[in-house]
Amino acid sequence: MTYLLLSLVLLLSILCLYLILRRNSMSNYPPDEPIQTPRPRPIPVNIRVVRNQRGEPIDLQIEPQSLALAENQQAKWSTQDGRLEIRFSARLTPFAGDIYETARGGESFSGAPLPKRPARSSFEYTVLVTTSDGFFLSKKAEVRIVGAPTPK
User: Fold this and answer.
1) Chain-centroid distance, C-alpha 29
2) How high is the mean pLDDT of the chain?
3) Which of the following CATH numbers is that of domain 41-145: 2.60.40.420, 1.20.140.160, 3.40.50.880, 3.40.50.1110?
């Protein structure tokens, strides 16, 4: 019984010592001054559902239809007319992602173009909108990147 109690005390002492040493080694993490990376400036892309005289959706209006982005900019897609989805080809996207989704009234940000993106200046994407009354619309648009890409 005595050996069991002594073993338990020894085990608890080792555990306490481990926790104290671990806390001291983590005292400088994260660094006192966080690293600030500049956020890319968002360029708005407004998407609107065009309806006929009976109120049925017939088309999407995308402004601008062809978006020019610099290396320090990002796209900001938004619509008030329904659920929004932006789709690039998985192999031909200038950004870290290829699908961007948002609820009605929300915004999707692309992030800055990747330095090592496919070697082309224009990237086609599809805008998909599902309206609150259940209609589904799609339209093609493009992003042009201003600046020389680094080939993959």
Assistant:
1) 26
2) 87
3) 2.60.40.420
